Amino acid sequence: xxxxxxxxxxxxxxxxxxxxxxxxxxxxxxxxxxxxxxxxxxxxxxxxxxxxxxxxxxxxxxxxxxxxxxxxxxxxxxxxxxxxxxxxxxxxxxxxxxxxxxxxx
Amino acid sequence: xxxxxxxxxxxxxxxxxxxxxxxxxxxxxxxxxxxxxxxxxxxxxxxxxxxxxxxxxxxxxxxxxxxxxxxxxxxxxxxxxxxxxxxxxxxxxxxxxxxxxxxxxxxxxxxxxxxxxxxxxxxxxxxxxxxxxxxxxxxxxxxxxxxxxxxxxxxxxxxxxxxxxxxxxxxxxxxxxxxxxxxxxxxxxxxxxxxxxxxxxxxxxxxxxxxxxxxxxxxxxxxxxxxxxxxxxxxxxxxxxxxxxxxxxxxxxxxxxxxxxxxxxxxxxxxxxxxxxxxxxxxxxxxxxxxxxxxxxxxxxxxxxxxxxxxxxxxxxxxxx
Lengths: 105, 321
Prior knowledge:
By secondary structure, chain A is an alpha/beta fold. Chain A is 51% helix and 15% strand. Chain A has helices at residues 6-10, 17-33, 50-64, 79-95; strands at 2-5, 13-14, 38-41, 47-48, 72-75.
């Protein structure tokens, strides 16, 4: 199991998308590739932006499909962070299956 | 370019000020002002700072001698300092904490993170309020850093107003503007149509794909507009010739969010003087700031509905003969 302490990387207010991208590329995806389970621990994180959570998990859901959510656990999220995670999880699942255009950047 | 600081320009009455902006002769900036009193929204100062930084030689920035009694405010907000022009106004410095954030230039992601870390304690906000302001600043400035291609980055300043117990915030850039950004993936014909798309949940210039790219969802401006909408505050966005203003909702109106900004109570124009880049101004009244987590419930519902409606619009229809 791979446990990622978000506070250690992003601080009390998790808003830096570059940090989120690094966590995704350097920790989440390699762990999932090795069939490990991932725990994203939000202990001591007071707030997060939707952009941060999006950069953290959206591409993981897109790459692996929504079944991957059974291998990712969001730990110690306060009410606000929990709701932002749910918004991102919802709209990513709503969008799955509509891959009708490429990315610009 | 010419710009005149009026007696009063806040988001509610900012339209005449913006209409008076003259973008011609972009190598030269002339700043004039009301000679009795100047009372302006931080957006005005961010805008002038952003303009000033596009002028290669500070000798090409002319600021007339200010006579208004409130001229010291412009000095304290750091306008002349960032423009690197002498104001000939002496002021007694006083503690800034809890009152204002002078004009600051933010160009990188790390500068933004540092600014947010230092800014929130400066404003002496309660936890919920700090969350809201930090959220807005992060989303708006990251938009500039990631999409505007603005060499000078974002120019930002903010002011706390005791009488209304509100924070007023202005962010300006002189980048490519919203239409150029959105039209990487869409085909907005006008600046105001591009603004409409940019304010809609899940619309980003980086892709037409639902869910966005790995780094962009196209939700930042929608979240910011939603915060202002739920709190019944002003929100203004100006890019190119397009101008959109979210008007205050009447207190009797039931609070709800709209995915389409043109359904909200608003005003809009598409014939303003051309602003090369984007300006965003927002007021957040602190004593009516809704609990952030309640706002997220409404956003989740509106966002999902918008995505599903877009999906449904692409469904193939059964053919009957």
